[in-house]
Design brief:
The protein contains 21 helices and 21 strands. It is an alpha+beta fold. A six-stranded antiparallel beta sheet has the order 10-14-8-3-19-18, with no helix packed on it. A five-stranded antiparallel beta sheet has the order 9-4-17-20-21, covered by helices on one side. Keywords: Membrane, Transmembrane, Transmembrane helix.
């Protein structure tokens, strides 16, 4: 294997390890921010490293990355038709909306798709920096250190647990540092070691790091040397300043929700563990009556309905397809006298001596033994994850809502401030479907500067409405603020909605086969929203900033085997609404281009003048290229190493420049004869020296270039002479 391919093989190993390090950055970012499509981000990272490694021209590499980014954005954010017309309208609308947001300084109005574009651009730039560190500096120590600091800070101050990640980073980083150090030693030799020799040099390093990593994983770990600093730091923050929000409570699942508000302190106490295939939201109960300060139930006494032993829980939420049925195995570490339900729960597995009863209003399922509620240490629940048809959701017109049966899910206090109702009308007036109205309300919080915060949360005054205070005054809070506000806004818009309590998915602590193990703590106590969609059922929505909703639910999936209630309306009924949406999008795009046309018309003289200046500058640059191009080439190649590969590129560039100058190499003429011709024209022996070194390196197989500084001087001398 020649030196060029041996170097590429070495770089392929290095970039694979770097890719694994970058992956350790993306995993916690995706988990903590609710960012989806992690696999697509990783593919983009792979492209950023693989294309330069394969020797792809820069213009082609950049083009492929841009095309992939456009496909990524279309796949992730374009709902509905994906034809070329719909895609172009989508990008035109995104350009219009984000341009207006940036020019007006409304950074909260920037769309998620544009944020994704910025994140992809950041990855692209970071990949160039990493390539510079590796191929020029032969060191990634700075990037390695930054990765360790990033992960340890997240492990300390966020819910992300990096026990396994830190070990992986240490192993990968030590391999990287060791291999690059060996490469530095080899580069100082007159000849690159052969592939077998290079492998023999690397084997001890790999064995030492691998064995050390395995022992670190298997051996027992000592307890932390000092206590967790987070509670102490939070206590300092709570005591700082004046006029704070008041005494903080402790986060966790509680029964009384009649007085919401005020700060909470986090609690990492594990309350249960779940073995499931994927992350789930764990539902406990719903509440239906809003009191201006919190939630209560409209029914003081509820009917208890037996479930299990063949009787399904029968939540009116649409269940998924039967072939997707799975079982959640739960181990409780807290004394909860209810069971937690994954979405699409069907029935709990039988437990000897236990009867499962479901409350008719709240949906809470309580285990009874000897007619008394009990807590179970272990149980399992079968479920089929819900899936929704985009076609059915597009047919959720307001006139399809039943006229009765949903009064308690439309209840609002008479004293609710009018501006809350006005906001609901403003958010939903341009959406024809109930699903569109609900999505508009759901997105409102993330796009209008609302902040998730558990500590610096002010309680509303004695006569204030809880939702009104959050929407218009504080704009800061946690899940109860966001979810309660969305329910009230939906009800104000005439959409049946209810408040849901339970737990978010928890932390993924490992897997066994296809099953993942999640730890759910008091910090995961959560609330969200369910809204009724006619023909679909109760559907979850997640308005809380930083949370990504009930896991595993694909709102935009077309399902062939839907229940009959979803197939009452033929597919053709979708077309008028689709055409209306397309007309609205086209009108918005037309308005944007009309405004752009008016702006151009009003400033046409400026644009014509600028175009003329640019054209004149381009013509002048072309006519004088023989003067400035040599200076540019010298400056460009001075930044490059004059190793074997760099010298070969520089020599090829010199031949091209000589050809432009007029010294064309005739067919059949050897490089030595051509060098004599060039030196005879310019005088001196620069071309002979360069050609001799080129042939020696080409046929001698050297990786280093002897007398590199002297050869660089001869090369620059000839380049300058081609400038006349």
């Amino acid at each position: 294997m020649n030196g060029k391919w041996q170097k590429r093989l070495f770089l392929a190993v290095i970039y694979t390890l770097v890719f694994l390090l970058v992956r350790e950055w993306l995993i916690p970012i995706a988990k903590l921010t609710g960012t989806g499509h992690l696999g697509l981000f990783l593919i983009f990272v792979g492209l950023c490293f693989a294309l330069p490694l394969a020797g792809t021209p820069r213009w082609l590499s950049a083009s492929l990355k841009v095309v992939f980014s456009a496909w990524f954005i279309t796949r992730a954010y374009l709902e509905g038709p994906t034809g070329i017309g719909a895609v172009l309208r989508f990008f035109a609308e995104e350009f219009r909306v984000n341009t207006q947001a940036l020019l007006s300084g409304d950074f909260a109005g920037i769309t998620d798709s544009f944020r994704t574009v910025l994140f992809l651009a950041l990855i692209w730039m970071a990949s160039y920096l990493i390539q510079f560190w590796i191929e020029t500096r032969m060191s990634v120590l700075l990037f390695y250190g930054m990765t360790l600091i990033f992960i340890t800070v997240l492990d300390t101050f966020s819910p992300y647990r990096a026990d396994a990640a830190i070990l992986r980073i240490l192993v990968i980083g030590l391999l990287l540092v060791g291999l690059l150090s060996l490469a530095k030693l080899a580069s100082g030799q007159s000849r690159m070691p052969s592939l077998p020799s290079a492998v023999l040099m690397a084997v001890p390093l790999v064995l030492i790091v691998g064995v050390s990593g395995a022992l670190s994983q298997m051996l027992p770990k000592s307890e932390p040397a000092w206590p967790d600093p987070v509670p102490f730091l939070r206590s300092l923050a709570d005591g700082a300043g004046s006029g704070g929000p008041g005494e903080a409570g402790k986060i966790g699942y509680g029964e009384d929700d009649s007085m919401l508000g005020g700060p909470f302190i986090g609690d990492n106490t594990v309350v249960f563990q779940a073995n499931v295939k994927s992350g789930q939201y764990w539902k406990v109960e719903t509440k239906d009556t809003y009191t201006m300060r919190g939630w209560v139930n409209s029914a003081e006494e509820q009917e208890l309905i037996p479930v299990g032993n063949g009787t399904p829980i029968a939540d009116p939420l649409l269940a998924g397809k039967s072939r997707d049925e799975d079982t959640a195995e739960l181990t409780m570490t807290h004394d909860f006298k209810f069971i937690v339900q994954p979405y699409g729960a069907q029935e709990p597995a039988p437990v000897e001596g236990v009867q499962f009863l479901k409350e008719s209003v709240t949906g809470k399922v309580v285990p009874f033994r000897d007619r008394a509620p009990v807590s179970l240490e272990r149980y399992s629940v079968s479920y089929s994850e819900p899936a929704y048809s985009l076609t059915a959701l597009r047919q959720t017109m307001p006139d399809k809502l039943p006229e009765s049966g949903f009064e308690r899910y439309l209840q609002l206090p008479d004293e609710l401030p009018q501006r809350v109702r006005d906001l609901a009308a403003e958010l939903t007036e341009n959406e024809p479907t109930l699903y569109g109205k609900a999505r508009s309300v759901e997105r409102y919080f993330s796009q209008n500067g609302y902040v998730y915060d558990q500590l610096n949360v002010a309680s509303p005054g004695a006569g204030d409405d809880y939702v009104d205070h959050f929407l218009f005054d504080s704009k800061r809070g946690y899940c109860d603020n966001f979810s309660t506000s969305m329910v009230v806004l939906l009800r104000s818009a005439g959409i049946p909605a209810r408040w849901v309590k339970g737990f978010s998915e928890g932390e993924d602590t490992g897997r066994k086969g296809e099953t993942r193990r999640f730890e759910i703590t008091n910090n995961n106590a959560h609330s969200w929203v369910e809204a009724y969609m006619p023909g679909v059922g109760w559907m979850p929505f997640e308005p809380t900033v930083g949370f990504n909703g009930a896991g595993g639910i694909d709102y935009d999936l077309n399902i062939d085997d839907q229940p009959e209630e979803q197939q009452e309306t033929p597919e053709q009924a979708e077309k008028p609404e689709q055409q209306k949406e397309e007309k609205q999008a086209a009108a918005a795009g037309s308005d944007f281009w009309k405004s752009a046309g008016e702006f151009f018309s009003n400033h046409r003289n400026f644009f014509y003048g600028a175009a003329a200046v640019l054209l004149a500058a381009a013509v002048f640059a072309w006519l004088t290229r023989s003067k400035w191009l040599p200076k540019y080439l010298v400056a460009r190649y001075r930044r490059r190493q004059f190793d074997r590969e760099g010298f070969e590129r520089a020599y090829g560039r010199l031949l091209k420049q000589l050809r432009k100058y007029g010294l064309t190499r005739a067919d059949g003429k050897t490089l030595s004869d051509y060098a004599d011709e060039v030196d005879a024209h310019f005088g001196g022996t620069d071309m002979r020296r360069l050609t001799g070194a080129y042939e020696e390196n080409l046929y001698g197989g050297r990786e280093t270039v002897p007398r590199a500084d002297s050869l660089r001087e001869s090369w620059e001398n000839l380049i300058y002479r081609t400038g006349g």
